[in-house]
Amino acid sequence: MESNKNCEKFDEFFLVWESSCRNFIDDFSFANEEARLSRLRIHVFLRKDTPLKALPPAHDWVELHYSLTTCPFASDTCIVAELLQRFGACADKQELCVESPSTIYLIADKGRKYEEVIELLTYRNTRLRFVEIDGQDNTILDILDSACKFCKLVFSTVEERDLHNLESHNFFCAHPECPHHTKRFYTEKDLQGHIQGQTMCPYCDDSIFCSDQARREHMKTIHDILEPISPRDKNNNALTCQFCPERKFTSGEQVEIHMKNCHKKCNCSCGMYFKTRDDYIEHFYTVYPLACFENRKCPHRFQSVMHQAAHHREDHFATHPFYCVPCQHWQSESGSRQRMCFRDEKSLRIHGKP
Question: In which domain of life is the source organism classified (predicted)?
Fold first, then answer.
């Protein structure tokens, strides 16, 4: 019975931390204590060797699920196992009530990633409601209907959010044909800047245009006058790439597509873009400086000797998993095949003392 209450109470999100969806947990906060207690629960699945600096934000509504191994797809396996364990038992019992079914959001970095597991869970229980979300193009603020994207606040109800918008962001363009007649401005300053940029037709009374494009269309259609494209109309709303300033874009979606196709996004907690793969590798090797010394073809890298030793012991079954990094680098440069490794951390520390 307790599980039913939890299902009704929370919007639940399931996320693999090693995927490209870390930005889904955007920097947001709750408007009040009621919203914090009643809105959501985020389940983050991550590998057991995740460095402390790369952990998800620590909140009481974020629940961490560590893998038992450090294999590359351990977190993906864990999230499927958790879904089957928690919701698979509901298939025959029909535990969820019809009036308020729980919505389970699965955050995916690839299309149709969880389609099969969703079909398995809903095959015998249509009351289970799963939604697969593209975690690369959306954040949690895009999903929650009671969130203010301007202030990055989550309210307990949609009515509270509407009241907040009315009090804090009640700035609209009075011109009925302007897109901002129904789309809010963030501040009054933004609205005033928009009003100052409005133009009028010299031949028509009470004609107001919020963009040069609308004015040109009016002049051509009504007065058969072809006006040139103004520099303001070309560049006023143009977006650029931080690495390719000569490229111009008309929307944030175009910028994001360009960044994904032409540049490299870091998979660590920073989520930064880099101009070239070499720049990304240089950054990544700075964050994770230690390679695997047991197998030179192993792609894993680590932030500390302790994480490296755990990988050597668990993945490569090394009996002497602790390596002296300076000695290893010197031997690699000199061409020596002798390995300076130790059984435990104490032996490594004794070796390192002058």
Answer: Eukaryota
